[in-house]
Write a structure and sequence with these properties.
The protein has helices at about 20-80, 85-95; strands spanning about 105, 120. The chain is mainly alpha-helical and about 130 residues long. The longest helix has about 60 residues, at about 20-80. The protein has a domain at about 20-95. The chain is about 55% helix and about 5% strand.
Length: about 130
Amino acid sequence: MYTQKKSIENVHIVRERDRRRFRELLAVLSLGVPIGAFLLLFTWQNLEVIRLGHEATRLQQQRKQISDANKALQLELDRLTSLAEVEKKAAALGFETTKPQAVVMVQAAAPGEGSPSSALRAPSPEGRRP
């Protein structure tokens, strides 16, 4: 009981295109592609907004840290350049207070005024510039 396969000659059969099915495929693609592109762009835009929000928050925090560091450095500069601190360091290095009569004021000579030595003047009696 063996079955024998009968060969079928299909060589003469020609397959025709189904025009209705092709039109349906074109209709689905003409609607689906723009909708898909819109959804893709909408998603990309929302992700960019979220990313930029995180970046803005990070930059605000960094700005606050830099501002705080700047304030701390300004306080340190004011403390180190205060008169009391400078006098204390000068005394520790062995410097002494200078008498006002020993101070010589030097002013830049105007062009064509003569030799640079004419710029040296004795200080005024009050110890100030004239």
